[in-house]
Write a structure and sequence with these properties.
Blueprint lengths: L2 H10 L2 E6 L18 E3 L5 H4 L10 H7 L3 E4 L4 E5 L8 E5 L3 H4 L3 E2 L6 E5 L2 E6 L4 E5 L9 E3 L2 E3 L9 E6 L5 E4 L4 E8 L3 H6 L12 H22 L11 H4 L25
Antiparallel strand pairs: 1-8, 2-3, 3-14, 4-5, 4-13, 6-7, 7-12, 9-11, 9-14, 10-12
Length: 272
């Protein structure tokens, strides 16, 4: 590869910079009480998936890839939130497991409408121009009575921090957050998201009007139906499953012509 090609590749490669903006005492690695923020590669495991029969939920590759896409920031302290139902600011009562005076400025009710806000510990910058950061709740992770709000942030230029927010969905019911559990998932989006999406070529048609796609789908659908019929008849082991998608091959047995992955390898973080 020529020097020019190397420079071009470096300029277009996704770059994610995390800047810690809080004091070291707010980070879990510097504490002994089990509290503190932590940045970690998103964990593939989910308790509800572990609890499925034979952990079969992990056979769904789209789910497991989503689980481990990007980074988790953990909840820094355990607490219970109780929304009294008033839409005004200050209508959420917080009961922290430890040191409420320390954590209250970081976790509070500053927008009203039953929204819990975390002032997050990082400023994130991405390169090249056009890249963004998707901030959402941990994928396929569920919480009773509260739902994470999702945001897309223009981290290619932003020089400010951002907040993570959960909307309490049911008034007068306690909502629990545990120290160390995943609070948010940070997913960098490469390319120029806005321009690429707004300039995308998008088509719409009936499947039957595309003979080849119709054939491929029909063959897949028939094969799946026959597989489940064979399983119901005891001709297939109960724990067997079709693995075409997992193995990255189409109904004709052809390998995917794109980068197929069954597991994501976290990039190395360089500490400066």
């Amino acid at each position: 590869m020529s020097d020019t090609s190397k420079n071009s590749a470096a300029e277009t490669a996704l770059c994610v910079d995390f800047f810690q903006i809080v004091d070291d005492q707010m980070m879990a690695k510097n504490r002994t009480d089990g509290c503190g923020f932590e940045l970690q590669w998103a964990d593939v495991r989910r308790q509800w998936m572990d609890d499925t029969h034979g952990a079969f939920a992990y056979r769904c590759l789209p789910l497991t890839i989503a689980n481990q896409l990007g980074w988790h920031v953990t909840c820094p302290v355990g607490f219970t939130a109780f929304w009294r139902g008033d839409p005004a600011t200050g209508s959420i009562d917080f009961t922290f497991d430890s040191d409420p005076h320390f954590w209250k400025p970081l976790i509070n009710d500053q927008f009203g409408q039953g929204i819990i806000t975390w002032n997050t510990p990082f400023l994130v910058r991405t390169k090249p121009v056009g890249t963004r950061l998707l901030v959402t709740g941990p994928a396929n992770y569920f919480r009773r009575f509260a739902h994470p709000l999702t945001a897309v942030i223009e981290t290619d230029w932003l020089t400010a921090s951002f907040t993570m927010n959960y909307k309490i969905a049911v008034e007068c019911e306690p909502v629990r957050f545990e120290a160390g559990e995943p609070l948010m998932q940070l997913i960098p989006i490469g390319g120029d998201l806005y321009r690429d999406l707004q300039g995308a070529r998008v088509t719409y048609q009936r499947l039957i009007d595309d003979p080849e796609m119709h054939r491929l789908y029909t063959d897949w659908s028939s094969g799946r139906r026959e597989f489940h019929q064979a399983k119901a008849a005891g001709q297939v082991k109960p724990d067997d499953w079709q693995k075409d998608y997992f193995r990255g091959r189409d109904v004709d047995g052809n390998a995917a012509q794109t980068h197929h992955a069954t597991k994501l390898r976290p990039p190395v973080i360089e500490f400066k």
